[in-house]
Design goal:
The protein is an alpha+beta fold. Helices cover about 20% and strands about 30% of the residues. A hairpin with a 2-residue loop joins strand 20 and strand 21.
Length: about 475
């Protein structure tokens, strides 16, 4: 996890100094705040190859958002493939709904400067302003920072690389140029064929192509017509689609069909009922199954109930698993007050470290209630080993024993982690201001999202992102 360093120190000076900078046809507004990013440590130097092992391909779209953004997103989503959008700040400000759609679709947003000048012709302060303001605009719209920079026209120098690194961004070029911008809005079949030919002939000769396409303010009909064929070509030649963060999981990284996370369990059987006032704790102690004195059975995370089997107020009730396989709550006279929906030979109830309840016998699952905590609200804490999950249990945000924050998919492994260096047994806190903070056992703050939204909540979405949101649903911060 990298903080804004050099750029943050200069933000306060940009307003006064921009008037002295030269060579800028359209000066960027001044960035006035800093934020911890969710970006990995930047690569050193300029990158020309798609990340990942084997054969990988990265689709990239410059100059957006534009008139064809929605159509491009629809095509990518229909194939369930990742892509990276290098957006221009001015266009983001003019088309905020498209930026939000890109982010909510699970795509990577990156920096293509504020107004598309030759960065190498600007003063150091002017160049930094062109780059930094895009990050501020993006954070205001979707809560995440750009993790990649593509200098307009591919023109860069040492100053450009230093600026990008100071803002936690890697600098990305391309090695496949479809030249689709030359169509200038034409949808003629000849332009579509030319785009496809360049993508296939140049990209097919490489193990890690980065394909350059465009998403300009004018319509891009030839690009739209060519894109499905380009995707099918790389699929047919066994390339794995990645974004420039190296993510290869499909866009629906938390699908309904994902397998469950493996978990240890504590057991409840007919021979060991749960009496009123007693609790059964999950192995990591985040969850407890409690039989309350008045009869209700509940799973709690901290003091928050995540699942409740409510019954009339009957003192002395007990929860147990019957030989028939039902989980039941019985009165002191043996009357069944509540029972689960399954009763097929279950011999025990498992309380997992993901907060789920499962009736099992001989390793076979007969019934499961996915009841893990899905939201961390202001003032809430995730201790080491604790997590919140998506509503279907397919993804979770976990505080690892090594002190790192990890966003995991049951189907696709780790989707994101932060910070780069953790302190074992740390805890994650969402403070009342909406800041997401990792704190060491000694109280040292090792990382913060600096979200700053009163009454905010931390939630997970279906495409595998963690986001801090306001009560009205505005994103203050998110993982990429």
């Amino acid at each position: 996890m990298c903080r804004v360093t050099r750029g943050a120190l200069l933000f306060a000076l940009l307003g006064a100094l921009l008037t002295l900078s030269s060579g800028s046809a359209s000066a960027a507004p001044v960035a006035t705040s800093t934020a911890t990013t969710s970006c990995p440590t930047p690569f050193v130097g300029v990158q020309y190859a798609a990340p990942g092992g084997g054969r990988t391909v990265a689709l990239t779209f410059d100059d957006g958002p534009g008139a064809s953004t929605a159509a491009i997103l629809k095509i990518l989503q229909s194939f369930n493939v990742r892509a990276t959008f290098f957006n221009i700040g001015e266009n983001e400000a003019n088309r905020p709904a498209d930026v939000i759609a890109e982010a909510q679709g699970g795509f990577t947003l990156a920096d293509h400067s504020w107004s598309h000048p030759f960065l190498t012709g600007l003063s150091p302060v002017g160049e930094l302003a062109q780059i930094a303001q895009v990050g501020l605009e993006q954070r205001q719209l979707v809560g995440s920072s750009p993790c990649g920079l593509r200098p307009p026209y591919g023109a860069y120098d040492a100053q450009t690389l230093a600026d990008a690194s100071s803002l936690s961004m890697s600098t990305w070029m391309w090695n496949v140029d479809t030249q689709d911008w030359m169509a200038e809005g034409s949808g003629a079949p000849s332009w579509t064929s030319r785009i496809i030919s360049l993508a296939e002939s140049e990209g097919g000769a490489l193990n890690h192509p980065i394909v350059l396409m465009h998403n300009q303010t004018i319509p891009m009909p030839a690009t739209l017509a060519a894109l499905p064929t380009v995707i099918r070509y790389f699929q047919a030649h066994h390339y794995q689609f990645v974004d420039l963060l190296g993510r290869s999981a499909p866009l629906n990284a938390c699908p309904n069909a994902s397998p469950a996370f493996p978990h240890a369990a504590s057991f409840l059987t007919s021979a060991t009922p749960l009496a009123a006032g007693q609790s059964l704790r999950s192995p990591d102690a985040q969850y407890r199954l409690t039989e309350f004195a008045r009869g209700s059975l509940a799973v709690l995370s901290g003091t928050t109930p995540t699942w409740v089997a409510a019954v009339p107020r009957v003192r002395g009730a007990r929860a147990r698993v019957l030989p028939s396989g039902y989980l039941v709550i019985q009165s002191s006279t043996g009357k069944i007050l509540w029972q689960s929906s399954s009763g097929r030979r279950g011999d025990h109830l498992a309380l997992g470290d993901d907060g789920s309840l499962a009736l099992e016998s001989g390793g076979h699952l007969w019934w499961r209630a996915i009841v893990g905590a899905t939201t961390l609200r202001a003032g809430g804490v995730l201790h080491s080993g604790w997590s919140i999950t998506t509503s279907n249990g397919a993804c979770r945000l976990l505080v690892g024993g090594d002190g790192t924050l990890q966003l995991q998919s049951a189907a696709y492994g780790t989707l994101w982690s932060a910070p780069a260096v953790g302190i074992p047994h740390s805890s994650l806190v969402l403070d009342p201001r909406g800041d997401l903070v990792l704190i060491s056992p000694r109280g040292q703050v090792t990382w913060t999202s600096q979200s700053s939204g009163v009454g905010a909540s931390l939630v997970l979405d279906p495409v595998g992102r963690a986001a801090v949101t306001t009560p009205r649903g505005h994103w203050l911060w998110s993982t990429p």
